[in-house]
Amino acid sequence: MGKREGFASSFGVLVAMAGSAVGLGNLWRFPYLVGTNGGAAFIIIYLACVLVLALPILYSEFIIGRRSQSNVFGAYKKLAPDSKWCNVGFIYVLCSITIISFYSVVGGWTIDYFVKAATFQFSSASADQLSGMFANTVTSTASPLVYMLVFLGITALIVLAGVKNGIEKYSKIMMPLLFILVIVIAIRSVTLENSYAGIEFLFKPDFSKITAQTFLDALGQAFFSLSVGSGSILTYASYVSRKENIVKLSAQTAISDTMFAIVAGVAIMPAVFAFGISPSEGPGLVFVTLPYIFNQLPFGSFLAVLFFFALFIAAITSSISMLEVIVAYLDEEFKLKRRTSIVLSLILIATLGVFCSLSQGIMSDVKILGNSIFDLFDKSSANIMLPLGGLIAVIFVGWRMKKAEYADEITSGGLVKFSKTTVGIFYFFIKYIAPVVIATIVIRSLF
Ligand code: TRP
C-alpha cells in the first residue's frame, strides 16, 4: 500500500466522475431498457429516480468517501468506529465484482465492433444481416472471450498507472468527441424516413404499460448509469481534496450523464422504428441499429470507427471506477501491493466474465432462477445490490452521521456557502425521501 493518490484538479475530478458515470449504461443499457419497457413512461420514471433517489445517494457517497479518505470498508470503519457498519463494504465489493464481470463482456463487444468498423464490415449490410452479425458476435465461443480479456487487461493497466496519468488525458478528448458523435447520429436518426414513430415512442408516455417491474428497472438503471450504490463514487471521492465543491460536482456528473442518456435515446429509437427493428430487441439494440445509421451517413464508415473507439473509451473510464473499488479495498485493508490487488481481482473477474460471455452462446441453456448467467449478473446487481448499497449510504449519512458532520462536509468545512434551506432540503431527501422510496420500490417488486 503506497501513499494515497489524489486527483490533481477540479477538472480532473469532474472528468473522472463523469467518466465513471457515462458509459455503456447510457449508450447500450438505457436504450434497450427504454425499448423493452415501452418508451416514454419509462423515461419519465427514470428521470424522477435520478433526481429523487440517485442524486441523494451520489451526495451521500461523496460525503462518506471524502470525509473518510478511505476505501469502501475503511470508510465506514473510520466514520463509525466500534460498530459493525464496516461490513457493508463487502456488499460494495461484491456488487462491483458482479457488475464488472458482465460489463467487461459488453466492453469486449465494443472492441469487436471497433474492429468490424475499421475493416468496413457494416457497409451496405441490411438490418437482418446486422442482427445476424450481432448474434454471431456474442454467441461465438473464443472471440468474445479474447475481446473481454483485452478489455479487462486495458482496464487493469490504467488502474495500475493510476487514475491521474492514464485516464484524465484520454477522457478529456474522447468524452466530448463521443457526445458530438452521438448528436450527429441523433440528427440523422430523426431525419430518417418513418422515424416519427420512434420519436413518439420516446416522448409520448403510455402509462398503461407501467408495472412494478418498470419502477424497479428504472431505479436500477438510474443507479447503474450514475454509478451509485456500489462504492465507485465513494472510492473516487476519497481521492478528492477538501477544497472541492461536492454539490456542484455531483450535479455536473448527474447532468452530463442524463444528457448522454437522452441523446442516446434520440439517436437510437427513431432509427429503430425507421428500419423496422423491434424496440424490444434487447441487449443487441445499439449494436444492430448504429451500424445501420452509419451506412446512411456521409463518411459513415469513418464515423463508425470513431464512434466505436469513443464508446470503448467511455466503457473503460467506467470499468476502471469499478475495479478501483476492489483494488483500493484489497490495497488498504490487506496491505497488499497495488499490483497484487489488481492481479487477484483480475483472476476472479475474468473467471466470472468467462461464464457471463459463454452464457450468450454455448452455455445459454444454463438458467438460474429463469435467467442466463449474464442476465442474472446484470439484474441482480442493478435491481437488488445497487439499491441496497444506495440505501445503506443514505441511511448512514441520514441516521448515523451527525447532521453537523453532514453540513460540514457538504459545505467543504464552510468553504462553500449554501443557504441553510438548501442544506436542509438535501438532508431531508437523504434522510427520509430516498430511503423510504427505494425500500418501497424494491420490496413491492420483489414480492
Ligand atoms: N455508470 C457506468 C455506465 O453507465 C457503469 C458503472 C461504473 C457503474 N461504475 C459503476 C454502475 C458502479 C454501477 C455501479 O456505464
Number of DSSP strands?
A: 0
Share of β-strand residues: under 5%
**Major pleated sheet:** none
Q: Specify the number of helices.
A: 18
- Helicity range: over 70%
Low-confidence stretches: none
Mean pLDDT figure: 92
Distance between the termini: 44 Å
The unique ligands bound to this protein are:
tryptophan
Structural class: mainly alpha
- Outline: globular
Q: What is the string of helix and strand elements?
A: HHHHHHHHHHHHHHHHHH
Computed over alpha carbons, the radius of gyration is 21 Å
Describe the model.
- The protein has 447 residues and is mainly α.
- It has helices at residues 10-21, 24-36, 40-68, 72-79, 88-118, 127-139, 142-161, 163-190, 196-203, 212-226, 232-237, 246-274, 285-295, 300-333, 338-358, 373-400, 403-410, 420-446.
- It starts with 9 loop residues before the first helix and ends with a helix.
Topology overview:
Blueprint lengths: L9 H12 L2 H13 L3 H29 L3 H8 L8 H31 L8 H13 L2 H20 L1 H28 L5 H8 L8 H15 L5 H6 L8 H29 L10 H11 L4 H34 L4 H21 L14 H28 L2 H8 L9 H27 L1
Helix pairs in contact: 1-8, 1-12, 1-14, 2-10, 2-12, 3-4, 3-10, 3-12, 3-16, 3-18, 4-5, 5-7, 5-14, 5-15, 5-16, 6-13, 7-8, 7-14, 7-15, 8-12, 8-14, 9-12, 10-16, 10-18, 12-13, 13-14, 14-15, 16-18
The structure holds tryptophan.
